Amino acid sequence: MSMxxxxxxxxxxxxxxxFRRLNTEQAINLARQSKWEDAVEVNERLIQAFPNDAExxxxxxxxxxxxxxxxxxxxx
Length: 76
Description:
Strand content: under 5%
Structural class: mainly alpha
Distance between the termini: 25 Å
Shape: globular
């Protein structure tokens, strides 16, 4: 499922909320399937659009830890 970058074009608030919800669901589902590389990508996309999203930052840190990328996980 390809999702447009909400920072690339001026999205309406409803579209940003939908982008956030769909990407959050995708990130959680990927983590449940232990698809950590994909989970990193989705969470990074979320953080790019919503830099203060504590839950996305937490999920990113978990995914990076699972991949053994500890220095990056600490930064997240």
